Amino acid sequence: MKRLTNTFGIALTAALLSVGVASAASLGLSTGKLGAGSATVSGCTSSSLTATRNVDNSGNVTQIDVTSVPQACAGETLAVTLQNSSHTSLGAATTVVGTCSGGCTVTVTGFGSVSAANVTYYALSLTQ
After folding, report:
1. Three-state secondary structure call for residue 71
2. Long-range contacts of 87-93, Cβ-Cβ distance < 8 Å, separation of 24 or more
3. For residues 38 and 91, is the Cβ–Cβ distance under 8 A?
């Protein structure tokens, strides 16, 4: 009886594996693209960016000035996110870096009514 149970178990396992492989073989692979590889990614700057804020009489941030942006970053989009102490976004704005000579100062505006008292961090990013 034990031998019959083992034989039945092996046959059942083989049947289930065959069904699983057959099901996987019937999946269409042309619906999406997937790739792998490696590429060197370089940015327009390897140095840190520094930001200062301007505040109006109501205590709201009116603009962020990002200094020492290299000329190599001209044409890239600079994004600034104002964050509180929990790194939660309080407001964000973007601008395109213009051309200049030497280290550029880029001004970003359009944050709405964000109280400067609530801003603890600036998140800065440059993208093409």
Report:
1. helix
2. 87/121, 87/123, 90/114, 90/115, 90/118, 90/119, 91/61, 93/64
3. no
Q: Is the distance from CB of 61 to CB of 82 less than 8 angstroms?
A: yes
Residue 119 has pLDDT above 70, yes or no: yes
Neighbour tally for 97: CB within 10 Å: 20
Confidence of residue 27 (pLDDT cuts 50, 70, 90): very low
What domains are defined for the chain? 50-127 (2.60.40)
77: enclosing H helix or E strand? strand 77-83
Q: Which two tokens stand for residue 51?
A: 């930001």
CB atoms within 10 A of CB 69: 24
Q: Which pair of structure tokens corresponds to residue 118?
A: 């609530």
Nearest 5°: phi and psi at 105? -110, 120
Q: What is the DSSP string of 29-60?
A: -TTS-----------S-SSPPEEEEEE-TTSB
For residue 19, what are the contacts with CB-CB under 8 A and spacing of at least 6?
Answer: none
